[in-house]
Design a protein that fits this description.
With 326 residues, the chain is mostly beta strands. The protein has one helix and 28 strands.
Length: 326
């Protein structure tokens, strides 16, 4: 117990890391087809409680999620409805890395070797030359893609029929779990690289403790619901958050064994995404459907409205500010 309290004190006393929060979003409330596009695309938020959201680059109605390479956080990769886009020079320069043969990019992940992986409506592709050329490695719808941050040849893909894993950089694939369920997102724990969590449509939460080789049903949270996101807290190995439609936000304080709903103060339980802030212990972000982004400084026990009114934030991404798109 004494060591636990020491760890908690150290976490609380550590200076906040310098991160920038990115939201890939669209403003859909009140939009009429044919009208001028409402604020949409990539938005960033700097600073503490008095921070403000600012648009990064151009308006885009189908920006899904953003990723970056640990070795080069100044470059963002945007998974979007019309291709994979590279953002440089503070987000002012956008370059499409894909052609007209691929659409509906659903997720992007950069491996420890710099390889860029993305999932799209008809499969998975990888580039080992910063997006100059691409190789198709899987020919089936892929909603979620995650490269193992510790082993360059290991990649996990979630689609309409479960979670698939490769140990040889995409040459062969094996079903790892969640068979028959649509997988919406997967995450690897920042504290234990062999601990993975995945959220699904109607199947609830799935967990792996063997480096993603096999997944089993975790606590019966979100069964018969659509869970959109799962996020680990980089500042506290005990905390995990889930978000979903008609589900809201649920937080675990014991490493994902049990969860408690944290919806008091939110205007709706239709939540698209939620994520813990790696730079502020206890800070939690959530996107409520066509309402706004909400912020909590006590792990979801209370909430305040933070901005991006009328929006849908598909994914929150945190990037080190020392190199992020500014």
């Amino acid at each position: 117990m004494r060591s636990l309290w020491i760890a908690m004190w150290l976490a609380a006393s550590m200076p906040a890391a310098d991160w920038t929060l990115y939201a890939t979003m669209t403003t859909s409330k009140g939009y009429v087809v044919g009208a001028k596009l409402l604020p949409s695309g990539v938005f960033a938020r700097d600073g503490d409680g008095d921070g403000r959201w600012r648009q990064v680059g151009f308006g885009h109605p189908f920006a899904v999620t953003a990723g970056y390479a640990e070795r080069d956080p100044a470059t963002l990769y945007l998974a979007a409805g019309n291709g994979l886009i590279r953002l440089t020079e503070g987000g002012s320069k956008w370059k499409f890395l894909t052609g007209s043969d691929v659409t509906e990019i659903r997720d992007v992940s950069v491996g420890p070797d710099g390889a860029i992986w993305y999932g799209h409506s008809a499969g998975v592709r990888v580039s080992r030359d910063l997006g100059v050329t691409w190789t198709e490695v899987k020919k089936k719808y892929a909603e979620a893609v995650r490269a193992d941050r510790t082993r360059a040849s290991v990649v996990l893909v979630g689609g309409e029929d479960g979670i698939w894993r490769t140990e040889d950089a995409g040459r062969t694939w094996r079903l790892a779990g969640a068979s028959g369920f649509g997988v919406m997102q997967m995450e690897q724990s920042p504290h234990d690289p062999c601990y993975w969590l995945a959220v699904t449509q109607h199947g609830g939460l799935f967990a792996s403790r063997d480096c993603g080789k096999s997944f089993e049903n975790a606590p019966r949270m979100g069964v018969e619901r659509v869970l959109y996101t799962v996020s680990f807290d980089k500042t506290d190995a005990r905390r995990v958050v889930l978000a979903g439609w008609g589900f809201g936000v649920a937080v675990s304080e014991d490493g994902g064994r049990t969860f408690a709903f944290r919806n008091a103060g939110l205007p709706s339980t239709d939540v698209w995404s939620a994520a813990f802030d790696p730079g502020r212990p206890g800070r939690l972000w959530a996107s409520v459907h066509e309402e706004a982004v909400y912020r909590s400084d006590d792990a979801g026990r209370s909430w305040v409205r933070d901005g991006l009114e009328g929006s849908i934030v598909y994914r929150f991404s945190f990037v080190p500010s020392k190199g992020g798109a500014r």
